[in-house]
Design goal:
93 residues
């Protein structure tokens, strides 16, 4: 059984203050979020292409990459930081 080091796990997380600023529309915070997910977006948008000799070539589908980036920005701006309070108010608690 291996013990995970808390410091290495937290190293890969975005700080809450960055997320909070990004949801309010802070451009620098949104750029930080985009930079954080840049590698993941590139991985998702990478496609295998085969040439006439059957050799595999990998390339980034730029259209898909831009769509993923746009989706990340819109979902970040719509992100609700306090979903529990809305549920409590709706439920009458």
């Amino acid at each position: 059984m291996s013990v995970k080091n808390k410091n290495t796990e937290e190293k890969w997380l975005l700080p809450f203050c960055i997320i909070e600023d990004a949801t309010t529309g802070n451009v620098m915070a949104i750029n930080t979020v985009m930079k954080h997910y840049e590698g993941y977006i590139l991985r998702l948008s990478t496609r295998e292409l085969y040439d006439e000799l059957g050799q595999v070539h990998y390339c980034v589908d730029e259209n898909l990459r831009r769509r993923l980036e746009t989706r990340l920005i819109t979902k970040t701006l719509k992100f609700d930081l306090e979903p529990r309070t809305k549920k409590q108010r709706a439920g009458g608690l």
